């Protein structure tokens, strides 16, 4: 899977060396791919097909470049590279011949998308057909059991005994992100864009945790406002947020370092930072900000920008945190590394800083946690790094608080302008525009060469502004479709969103067991892996729906 077979055939009278580098690897040193002897000798290698490769053939005697080319090889393809003499005397040439056509790597994904689209249309169409046939009572009896509800024949069945005033778009947003997290963690069908990016840039997998952080900030504002309305005191809120933080961190620590397949906790593989630990700390800071300076009565007729000015102490605290991140990232001296380095190290940046992975962020984490952190970062395969680096490290958690705070701002907008959906959507659009412009300035609209590249491993400032922009746009779209127009009720993602902790922990523990996964027989294509990952994800959607029907929600 994601591999191609290349045969180099050398017709020259001298031995040649073939070097390569991935176009996704920033300023990477060329690596030796093959050595091919003279006089019709050949050598075969297997290469990755995830990214475009730049290949260079050099003479062994003079080290001169004989020819070079870039090509995006395709999965399952067999290629012949003929190294010979061109029509111009004494000048070598390299020609590429496809000996075996590659697989259509995106065909499984296309079929899966069409099947899911057909199921979605069926879910919408079947209730409409039943409605026209006047059989809603029968459908409700099947759906809700014998609970004796009376229904209007002109209304679709609603199995909730009480209509919730809670914003359904928040749970749908969270559930949508959590569903894709399950799919990605199960393998994402083996597609590279469902895996984390090696260093700078974005893939689908890089969007998900930031979305969870953003919506957590929104939920903090909405939940604490509701508890304030009910008369819950500040001390009670502090006890509640402290308890939840401790439970989140303990869950993250225990489940990160325990697998039922491996027996008891293995201290040799202990990892301190983790996803739930980051969420727990971020929640603690956001909840303290809201408890300390956010319990403000919403005016009936808010003035312009009052959703900002009334919370100025929160803004001061967050600006100080961002300033701390900037100072540590760009001013902290790191031994044997340039100050302010944001690269992956290894063979990147012309191989000048092999032991500088992550710059100040990596240095601080290794100083605090030693080897008790992520040992196989996403940059290791491409950049040939050797140092551990944790994407849930200390400096990144500071910017996680910033992204969560942007989510809090979304919650404040919803509270202040709840009477006017146009005002809510307009302000969401303004925030998205400002954050998008900030991202463009910080990155210079380039992946690697900007002031601060978009980097999920570092949770760089531009990464936060970029994901903040996406989050405001997505939340605004869901808010309009679900809560304003009522065109969609959020299913099936809303069920996962209401039990997100249970789904996250459950899929982590049970993901390697049947029926969520099995030993594959088709290893050379995406078909079986994609089906297995979609099947496992669908089971968690079904479990979430059944728990929703039983009114069971795991809360901490």
Verbal overview:
- It is globular, with a radius of gyration of 27 Å.
- The strands form two sheets. Strands 4-1-7-8 form a four-stranded mixed sheet, with no helix packed on it.
- It contains 16 helices and eight strands.
- It starts with a strand and ends in a 7-residue tail after the last helix.
- Helix 3 (168-185) crosses helix 13 (461-484) and helix 6 packs across helix 11.
- It has 556 residues and is α+β, with helices and mostly antiparallel strands.
- A hairpin with a 5-residue loop joins strand 5 (53-59) and strand 6.
- Mean pLDDT is 88; it is low at 146-163.
- The protein has three domains: 3-100, Sandwich (Immunoglobulin-like); 107-163, no CATH class; 201-490, no CATH class.
Short description:
This protein is of the alpha+beta class and 556 residues long. The chain has helices at residues 107-132, 136-144, 168-185, 205-229, 234-256, 275-293, 306-309, 312-331, 359-369, 380-383, 394-416, 421-443, 461-484, 493-497, 500-510, 527-549; strands at residues 3-10, 16-22, 31-36, 41-48, 53-59, 65-71, 78-85, 92-100.
Which class best fits the helix and strand makeup?
Answer: alpha+beta
In which range does the helix fraction lie?
A: 40-55%
Count the DSSP helices: 16
Count the E strands. Answer: 8
Radius of gyration: 27 Å
Count structural domains.
Answer: 3
- Distance from N terminus to C terminus (CA atoms, Å) equals 41 Å
> Secondary-structure element sequence?
EEEEEEEEHHHHHHHHHHHHHHHH
- State the strand order across the main sheet: 4-1-7-8
What global shape is seen? globular
Mean pLDDT: 88
Beta-strand proportion: 5-15%
Low-pLDDT parts are: 146-163
Major sheet, described briefly?
A: 4 strands, mixed
């Amino acid at each position: 899977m994601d591999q191609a077979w290349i045969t180099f055939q050398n017709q020259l009278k001298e031995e040649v060396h073939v070097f390569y580098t991935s176009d996704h690897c920033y300023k990477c040193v060329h690596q030796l791919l093959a050595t091919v002897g003279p006089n019709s000798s050949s050598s075969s290698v297997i290469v990755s097909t995830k990214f475009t490769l730049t290949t260079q053939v050099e003479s062994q005697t003079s080290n001169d470049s004989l020819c070079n080319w870039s090509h995006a090889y395709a999965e399952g393809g067999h290629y012949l590279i003929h190294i010979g003499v061109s029509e111009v005397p004494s000048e070598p040439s390299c020609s590429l011949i496809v000996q075996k056509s590659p697989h259509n790597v995106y065909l499984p994904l296309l079929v899966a998308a069409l099947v899911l689209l057909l199921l979605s249309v069926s879910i919408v169409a079947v209730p409409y057909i039943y409605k026209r046939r006047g059989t809603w009572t029968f459908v409700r009896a099947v759906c809700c059991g014998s609970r004796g509800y009376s229904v209007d024949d002109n209304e679709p069945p609603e199995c909730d005994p009480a209509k919730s005033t809670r914003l359904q778009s928040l749970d749908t947003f969270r559930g949508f992100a959590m569903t894709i997290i399950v799919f990605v963690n199960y393998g994402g069908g083996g597609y590279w864009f469902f895996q984390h990016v090696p260093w700078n840039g974005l893939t689908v997998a890089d969007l998900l945790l930031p979305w969870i952080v953003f919506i957590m900030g929104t939920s903090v504002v909405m939940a604490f406002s509701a508890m304030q309305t009910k008369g819950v005191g500040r001390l009670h809120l502090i006890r509640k947020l402290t308890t939840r933080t401790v439970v989140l961190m303990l869950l993250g620590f225990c489940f990160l370092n325990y697998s039922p397949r491996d027996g008891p906790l293995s201290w040799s593989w202990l990892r301190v930072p983790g996803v739930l630990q980051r969420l727990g700390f971020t929640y603690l800071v956001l909840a303290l900000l809201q408890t300390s300076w956010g319990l403000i009565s919403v005016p009936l007729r808010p003035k312009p920008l009052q959703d900002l000015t009334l919370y100025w102490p929160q803004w001061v605290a967050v600006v100080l945190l961002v300033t701390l991140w900037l100072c540590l990232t760009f001013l902290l001296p790191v031994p044997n590394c340039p100050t302010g380095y944001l690269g992956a190290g290894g063979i990147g940046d012309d191989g000048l800083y092999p032991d500088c992975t992550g710059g100040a962020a990596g240095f601080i984490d290794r100083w605090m946690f030693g080897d008790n952190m992520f040992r196989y970062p996403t940059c290791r395969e491409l950049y040939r790094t050797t140092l551990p680096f944790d994407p849930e490290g200390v400096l990144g958690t500071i910017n996680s608080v910033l992204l969560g705070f942007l989510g809090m701002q979304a919650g404040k907008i919803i509270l202040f302008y709840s009477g006017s959906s146009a005002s809510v959507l307009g302000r969401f659009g303004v925030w998205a525009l400002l954050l998008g412009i900030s991202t463009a300035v910080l990155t210079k609209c380039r992946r690697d060469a900007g002031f601060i590249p978009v980097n999920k491993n570092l949770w760089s400032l531009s990464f936060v502004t970029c994901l903040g922009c996406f989050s405001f746009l997505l939340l605004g779209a869901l808010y309009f479709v679900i809560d304003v127009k009522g065109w969609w009720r959020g299913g099936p993602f809303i069920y996962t969103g209401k039990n997100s902790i249970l789904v996250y922990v459950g899929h982590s523990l049970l993901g390697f067991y049947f029926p969520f996964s099995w030993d594959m027989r088709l290893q050379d294509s995406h078909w079986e892996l994609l089906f297995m990952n979609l099947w496992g994800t669908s089971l968690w959607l079904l479990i979430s729906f059944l728990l929703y029907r039983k009114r069971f929600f795991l809360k901490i």
